[in-house]
Amino acid sequence: MSVKITRNAAKVIKKELDKEENKGLALKVFITHAHGDHAHYGLDLTKPGENDTVVSTDKDIDVIIDLSDPFLNGVKIDYLYFPEEGFVITNPSQGNHGDH
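^ thats the sequence. predicted structure below, dont judge the formating
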């Protein structure tokens, strides 16, 4: 399982994880909706559940994912400032390059 986090996203995520109220939590990527050959993704700060696996990234951020969902293998988490500020989660390895 692999998860890619861009530099912009890592800065924002680390800032959130460093907050006192988020101590002991990790970033979780999950499927909000799947249809056809792609999925839509969400993020949360939580603790791993029973079916979750913690994946280490090259940005020193551990990410919680559910190994049973193939749409989560290879997700890419980015943070854009333009045209709208916010996270963008895609999975290029599954042919998903953005929401529609």
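The CA atoms of residues 53 and 81 lie 30 Å apart.
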